[in-house]
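Risk mitigation, structural track. In case the binding assays with protoporphyrin IX containing FE fail to produce interpretable data, a predicted complex structure has been prepared as a fallback.
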Amino acid sequence: MHPAHENHGGHHPMLQHHFFNMGQQLEASILGMWVFLVTEVMFFGGLFMAYLLYRTLYPAAWLAGSHELNEVLGGLNTVVLICSSLTMALAVRAAQVGARMAQIVNIILTMGFGTTFLVVKYYEYAAKFEHHLVPGAHFDPTREPAQQLYFSLYFMMTGIHALHMVVGLGIMAWILYGAWKGHFNAEYFAPVEIAGLYWHFVDIVWIFLFPLLYLIGKHQ
Amino acid sequence: MNHAVNEPRSYLDAPYGVASWLLTKDHKRIALLYLISITVFFLIGALFAAGIRAELMTPEGDLFTADMYNKLFTLHGVVMVFFFLIPSIPATLGNFLVPIMCGAKDLAFPKINLLSWYLYLIGATLTLGAVFMGGVDTGWTFYTPYSSMASNTNVTLAAVGVFIAGFSSILTGFNFVVTIHRMRAPGLTWFRMPLFLWAMYATSLVMILGTPVVAITLLMVGAEAALGFGIFDPRVGGDPVLFQHLFWFYSHPAVYIMILPGMGVISELVAAVSRKQIFGYSFVAYSSLAIAIIGFLVWGHHMFVSSQSIYAGLVFSIITMIVAVPSAVKTFNWTATLYRGSITWESPTYWVIGFIGLFLVGGLTGLFLGAMGLDVHLHDTYFVVAHFHYIMVGGGVMAFLGGVHFWWPKMTGRTYPETLGKISAVLVFVGFNLTFLPQFVVGYLGMPRRYHAYPEEFQILNVVSTGGASVLGIGYLLIIGYLVASMFKPRNATANPWGATGLEWDIPSPPTTFNFEIDPVVTEDAYNYAGRAQKTGDN
Ligand code: HEM
Ligand SMILES: [Cu+2]
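Fallback model:
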């Protein structure tokens, strides 16, 4: 017999009409998030391509540029994001077993780490403005022009990443609301799961950005 | 609350009202919303084309200034590629048919599907805004530095429009991939899927993998034009050729976004009009995937003469020859299917035959262009223009119109006059060849593209081309006329007017909101015409 017919009596309240059952709905949302993350990889991929090309063409400018970044702050932010990934994973686990309080606490912690990251990033950006390292008309004229390329890519890569963090915080707020209402349990946890996938992805992007922008070549 | 209690009504009737359409999550209604929008943009794009052809009637640049001419061909290209052809089959026929062919009630993410239509509208509006603010003159390719250092400010607006429309196409592809993976009816294995689903799947892969790259590229151009980030600016060491690489990394695959869906439509139509299982089903299915994958490895054939090393050019040239193979496989298989089929001469048949002929010419001339040495002569001439119009208009638009004629009774519940269907197919075929065949010749003789004036000896061929374009235009207008007129007639279509196989023909025309009253179970291969004939014979 077809699964659809078995379900006709007691629909789960969160089951959308066009799915046969909760299992199919969960699988669809998780696959959907993975597909979305593939598009994100390609999106950042264009920037990494430009990075690769110009780094090869202008190694000296890259070295000089990376010396302007504060690897202590960058390192701190890396630790902060890794912690947020842990709390995110714990939140997903809590949703799967239906532990409401643990969901709420872990989501709030994740949001706290995310905000910390953005605050640190703000101070880093402010310093770049002060030192005339923002490409364009106000760029420090004593520097080699190709360093503008480095900072163009620095701002685009970290800026788009930070934008993803802001979106992530919005998603977390939405998940927090659902957790507060007690929506998530062993039967229905897809939103937390896919929000988690997104959050981990954004963290991983940073894990690549940090060494590429802050560390490589610096201590030669 | 419980919809099962009410008598099921067709998706066109239930419920009424403007809001019920603008906020609909029904994939079939969204398909119609898209159909209306892309038709409007097709007409806008055609208007620009009319301007181009009118200017080229005479060798002197008399009708428009060079600057205005630049804007005409740019806007023609931008509108036709990004706002008509890329969404054409996926967002209309694909939206309508993918869930039904899967045996599902809707796409996996109906709200995201609606969002994609709104993104399309926002992108289209911004780009039109750029038109009204004075237009864009970069060519549809947005090459730097035309689009950055040397741009008028409208370029940013138009690029933002294309960027946003790109997300609408990503969302469509994303929805199709998840739907085809996760929502197929019991018994509908991968190799029982109609080939249209295979084609939509392959197209979606290209949309998902390619479109984000052009999105980030346009963002980099925008950052350069608006914020002074010199990513492609040679003054700070930036490389304009990097833009071309990134652009064609998307845009060659994007040409397959435009033709793969057409190939899927033709596979359905070929089987239906010849009442036969498609010849070499699995070859046709796999060739869609092969095109999607190899299509990502040939972008350098657009850059043979833009400072690319000749070794890179050599490799791209060879891979270009290879990517033609899966397209040839399809063409052979369609022909083999038609061979000894019981061909019925209905209007879809005319579109099928037209498609195969025109696509063949377009594909073969692609090989001319892919041959590195020959391309040095042909690059940026009218030969290239003729090549891609044979594929995109002769192939893509013919297939789209064939599909619209084939599924129109299903989508609207109405039929159109068969004779007019055939006449319009012939008009379009003849008009098309008159327009673009001379362009191969004039391009080979050396007429460059993108100039508003040309030497006198090219005039005759250009006049033929403009005359052909008028025939073509009449053909298109005729189609729009009788299809729109059919909407004002009573619903007279039967569930399966062509006697075709496929889940969509087992449900009423037009379908009910949730497509299937009883969830379907698939027990046979696609195109089981032989099995059907036996069954009706037994009765
Ligand atoms: C299948 C669908 C195809 C479509 C929609 C298509 C479309 C296009 C378009 C739009 C252009 C012009 C780009 C521009 O400069 O503005 C182009 C150029 C080109 N196409 Fe195709 N094409 C298709 C198939 C092929 C095939 C099968 C080949 C070869 C195997 C091919 C080889 C080329 C080459 C080499 C060029 C560059 C010519 C030049 O700029 O010198 N194309 N095509
Ligand atoms: Cu190409």
